[in-house]
Amino acid sequence: MPSREFTAPETRPLRLRDVTVPNRVWMSPMAQYSAGPDGMPTDWHLVHYGARAVGGVGLLMVEATAVGPRHRTTSADLGIWNEEQAAAHRRLTSFIAGRGVVPAIQLLAAGRKASHQVPWEGAGQNGPVSVADGGWETIGPTATPIGDLNAPKEADDADLDEAVEAFAQATRMAHLAGYEAVEIHAAHGYLVHQFLSPLSNHRTDEYGGSLQNRMRFPLRVARAVRAAFPPEKPVFARVTATDWAAGGLTIDDAAIFAKELAAAGIDLLDISSGGAVRTREARTPVRDEVHVEFADTLKKASGLAVAPVGQIGDLARAAELVATGRADAVLMGRPLLRDPYFALRTRPDDQTAWPRQYHRAL
Ligand SMILES: Cc1cc2nc3c(=O)[nH]c(=O)nc-3n(C[C@H](O)[C@H](O)[C@H](O)COP(=O)(O)O)c2cc1C
User: Fold this and answer.
1) What is the per-residue pLDDT across 182-235, written as a single tens digit (0 to 9) for each?
2) In the chain, what is the straight-line distance between the N-terminal and C-terminal CA atoms, in Å?
3) Best CATH choice for the domain 14-348 from the list 3.20.20.70, 3.40.50.150, 3.30.70.100, 3.30.465.10
4) Which end of the chain is more exposed for a tag (fewer CB within 10 A), N or C?
């Protein structure tokens, strides 16, 4: 049983490159499927993220945002591949940064998990949208579909070059938009993870087979993103620590990948798991702190800062994980959907934490 002796809220800053994050309770990326045409942020994003920025998280990771139109999961995904989008994202970053919160954004290429319905329509994430119905051609390491989604085209050299450049361009646009950190989505069965996992990568060229080969495309992405972002701003990667399936990626593989990410200049690992396949057996176990032990292993292997995510619903426990050095920060997802002020709940009287407009309620 975890001890509950650290009950103080976690308020120590964390410096990553030249960016100082004011505390260690961070908002995890959560797709809203609420973008306007062409991936443009909408009023929903401003109000949704604005409320969480007022709510006192140290860093706010904007949801999985597509690096190009073909890399979206749905037509309602946010995008950040051109200057018009970057200008629209500025509304979000200026409000978030104005609250003293670090604005960050997760960059996504969906690969074979692209071109599906939004969660609240039809079959949702398992409902393919065909090209005839306004969808788009998907790519993957191999032409094997996942679930009922469209079979992807096996990515050729030109597709891989395009994807790497799309990540670099999105990174440049994220900088232009005012984001202070970017995160490569290298987890949950999206394109980067699809290359890493032997369950989705059956290639026989230099991008498939051995772990060394399966890491080739992910590391190209990592180096391209790092090179496209100013050196004073940190780059994170969300990684899958295990596929939870026989024959899949293991924590030992993830440790080797983590070390390579460190060599590529990545600053922090956001630790998650699963997503490569949709079999019953590969379900992520529903238990508290499922990723904390993996964070221990990956931190040791890479020397990088780590931020585990998943069922860490208790701010006292988050503070304890940070105080004992097991996490450099803790990412919170669903608790922040339920309550935008979640991170302030342990500081009910703290005038420095609550906005001055609300002080008369304290
Ligand atoms: C509505 C929703 C949308 C999500 N979208 C993303 C996403 O865009 N990118 C991502 O890496 N994870 C996504 N996730 C996973 C969360 O970031 C988080 O890892 C997960 O919910 C576990 O953390 P929690 O137990 O604190 O909620 C999403 C989760 C939810 C509930």
Assistant:
1) 999 999 999 999 999 999 999 999 999 999 999 999 999 999 999 999 999 999
2) 34
3) 3.20.20.70
4) N
